From TrEMBL:
This is ChrB N-terminal domain-containing protein. It comes from Nonomuraea jiangxiensis. Residues 24-179 form the ChrB N-terminal domain. InterPro entries: ChrB_N (IPR046858).
Length: 183
């Protein structure tokens, strides 16, 4: 079995003023969007990629220049307890994938509700297409952060394929209802 590829980590250690709280919330949101995980308060880590380095450098600069805070960005390829850090990072991605899986289940239930109510309209079809497009976009964002290959990613691919099949079946029913109404 091959050894796991070593990961270079970027670690942001920062301090922002406690007031206004929107500053801390802004930093938290940016780190969450990047997919970074917190090791403790005000210490976040992410695998080093060109995108993560760009975003963390920009955030560090913003904390120092615009938020009157302090921030240090370190890069390391040697982390004692790295397997725990990898597990923490992958668990965060799996949590995001779980949310998508839950929304896929909601998608199926929503379409089933329309079928039970016999709402075979183009409006419903368009709404369901938009919902599936949003799910796929959400998955793409999480997948982009999933640079270490979290386990649940493949489940989401299958779930999205199942959603697409459900949408195809619903579209066929809408077209059939339209054809019946015209005849």
């Amino acid at each position: 079995m091959a050894e796991p590829k070593p990961v270079t980590w970027l670690m942001l250690v920062y301090r922002v003023p406690s007031e206004p709280t929107r500053l801390r919330a802004a930093v938290w949101r940016r780190l969450k969007n990047l997919g970074a995980v917190y090791l403790q308060n005000s210490v976040a880590a992410a695998p080093r990629t060109p995108q993560s380095e760009r975003m963390l450098r920009a955030l560090r600069n913003e904390i120092v220049e615009s938020m009157s805070g302090q921030a240090f960005l370190a890069s390391t390829s040697s982390v004692v307890g790295e397997s725990d850090l990898v597990a923490l990072y992958n668990a965060a991605r799996d949590d995001e994938y779980e949310e998508i899986l839950d929304k896929c289940a909601d998608f199926h239930e929503g379409v089933a509700k329309e079928v039970r109510a016999r709402h075979y309209t183009y409006g419903e079809l368009e709404e369901n297409e938009e919902d599936l497009t949003k799910l796929k976009g959400w998955y793409a964002k999480v997948k982009a952060r999933d640079v270490l290959g979290a386990a649940r990613g493949k489940e989401v691919v299958k779930a999205l394929d199942d959603c697409a099949k459900t949408l195809e079946d619903f579209a066929a029913a809408v077209y059939e209802a339209e054809d019946s109404a015209v005849s």
